[in-house]
Structures are given as C-alpha cells and as structure tokens.
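Blinded run. Sample ID left blank on purpose so nobody reads anything into the name before looking at the predicted structure. Input follows.
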Amino acid sequence: MRYMLMQAYGAVELEGCLPMSEWAPEDVRAHIDFQHALNTELLDSGELVDAQGLAGPELATFVVSDGVHPARIIDGPYPGSKELLAGYRLVDVDSLDRALEIAARSSAAPGPGGAPIQQPIEVRQVLAAPDPEV
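Blinded prediction complete.
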C-alpha cells in the first residue's frame, strides 16, 4: 500500500520553535542529515518511492479553471497562513501501522539544539484509479 506522508510546518511543532531560517547552521545540518539518513534507510528497505522538500508559500501559485475560460492564476504569498506543506515522502509499505511508524520517526526529526521538532505529519493512503473496464 502506498501512503503519502506530508510534512507540515507552522502548526503544532515544538513549543517556541523558530523558523528554520533562524536556526543555527549546525541545527539545520543535523535536521537535513536526519532526513537524508531516514530516506536512505527507507530506500534500502525498498519502502521509499519519493521524498522531496517544497519551496515556501511565497513561491506558491494556485491555478483555477472551469475548462472553458482562461485559467485564473493566483500567486502568493499568503501572509494569513500559519502553516505550510514543507515536504513529503511517498512510501510503499505493508500496512498503515508501518506508515504511521515512519511518520512518527519523521515527526521527531531534530530541531534547534537537537530537540525533536514534533512536526505534524499527515498520513494519507494513495488510492488507485478505478478500473475503467468495470
């Protein structure tokens, strides 16, 4: 089963945690090293399909279309938003329990001073498209 593990930033992470742009360089490096190590472990086990960090909301663009008229393109930033999707992992695992285990490890990634950041991870199963012949 495939699950998308979406990493939010700015919701309920570590109390008083600064934005990563304000972390000490060694804390940023420790956080990134943790993410790379977890990805390597999941690659080696055959469970990682893809993992990516995403650009900040200041670079976001929304596209809205009715399929007839020209699409509306709406650019950020969106200063009213207090959280953003920071990145994701797509995993192919045997069970929801395993996806939750991976999400819990990711949530505990180190932040400032090495303290677990407690980053919220949304876990959603990736659904297969319906069979067109049915």
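Unblinding after everyone has recorded impressions. Strands lie at 2-9, 48-53, 61-64, 72-75, 84-92, 121-125.
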